Amino acid sequence: MPPRYPGFTKLHVPGGEYVKTKMVRDNFKRQMFAENETTRNALRYISRNTTLPMRARIEAQLQLASMPNYTRYTQVKDRCIESGYARSVISDFRLCRMKFREKALAGDLAGVKKGSW
């Protein structure tokens, strides 16, 4: 069986980092979710609308169940765009706490400065 993401085990990025397979997988899931979001929402609306006939609602539920898992939003994981780290990601900047601190101290983030009180 061929790999799902061929050639993406070590892809060099100009910043000196390597793209990790989990980053590619998450990006793929984000794209698939964006492509199927309207279809998914329409099917969810149809399946939950009690004024519609039961047959149409069941068909919508079956179509929803047959869609791939990676079209769901729950499959998308917040990851740091610099390092691919999945824990303690600051969602406003899409950076993990370590990379956020490095960039903030270097002055690379607009509007962020060290707090003192």
TrEMBL record:
It comes from the Eukaryota. GO terms for molecular function: structural constituent of ribosome. Belongs to the universal ribosomal protein uS14 family. One of its GO terms (biological process) is translation. The keyword Nucleotide-binding does not apply. Gene3D superfamilies: 1.10.287.1480. One of its GO terms (cellular component) is mitochondrial small ribosomal subunit. It comes from Geotrichum candidum (Oospora lactis). This is 37S ribosomal protein MRP2, mitochondrial.
